Amino acid sequence: MTRRFHFISGLPRSGSTLLSAILRQNPRFHADMSGPLCGAFNTLQGELSGSNEYAVFVSDAQRQRMLASLFESYYGPEYEADVVFDTNRGWCAKMRHLRLLFPHGKVIACVRHMSWIIDSVEQLVRKNTLLPSSLFNYQPGGTVYSRADALANGEGLVGGPYNALKEAFYGDEAGSLMLLQYETLVSDPARAIAAVYDFIGETPYAHDLDNISYQADEFDQRVGTPGLHEVRRKIAVRERMSVLPPDVFRRFENDAFWLDPSLNPRGVRVV
Predict the structure, then answer these.
(1) What CATH number corresponds to the domain at position 167?
(2) Which InterPro entries does this UniProt record tie to the protein (predicted)?
(3) CA 137 – CA 184 distance, rounded (Å)
(4) What pTM did the predictor assign?
(5) How many structural domains are present in the chain?
(6) Residue 196: C-alpha distances to residues 13, 160, 192 (Å)
(7) Which domain holds residue 191?
(8) CB burial class (10 A; 0-12, 13-18, 19+) of residue 95?
């Protein structure tokens, strides 16, 4: 492969779109919001498994080539970047596969205090009062409590990626993983981006952190959640009160395991 592939993953509402918007200023880089490649990867992997009667004709070497070819096929000649960052929350659950296919590839997992992730989703729901969101299967009912439960369960928008993040953090491939905290990205973006460049071994680039540009208005409108991928032009810390009831906020406030060095036995870099 002529390109280098890296991956942006981690938790929702934790800065992955902002990170992509910054990285794509570098003309050598391509980065974007979450895309379809991880889903296609899972589908192809399933079709090459024993569930398909013809899988007996497929060797592991063929599986590896076919799965790897997805990336070059998707990022074809219309993408001129030397370095591609593919974004999907599912990549943290695919660390073994990525290490096999891309031995030099890195995974940057965006993380944030869980209470503020739940808060951010709830804020979007309230902002778009008249539009049921795909985040909750377009169901118009429910309360802040039922929405928090749905988000946090193992199959939910937050719970699923959270479990995948812990698997990656404690797994054998943790050396390919870096955690980038949302709090660092918005309060000290220069340090955050410098850490990303150092982690992936690329020459630093002079990013314009006061002039960020990214739009996905059509996508956000289609999924019934305008503002889902909104990126403000200038990065800044914006203090506000949580919209969550205190008991819901407290439920998640101790879930940031990455803040405790004693819970980081593999020495994963946390920025």
Answers:
(1) 3.40.50.300
(2) P-loop_NTPase (IPR027417)
(3) 32
(4) 0.90
(5) 1
(6) 19, 25, 6
(7) 4-270
(8) buried
Stated length of the chain: 271
Structure tokens belonging to residue 104: 């030099």
Q: What is the pLDDT of residues 92-144, one digit of tens each?
A: 999 999 999 999 999 999 999 999 999 999 988 888 877 777 777 777 778 99
The residue whose two tokens read 């980065």 is 31
Q: Give residue-wise pLDDT tens across range 163-197.
A: 999 999 999 999 999 999 999 999 999 999 999 99
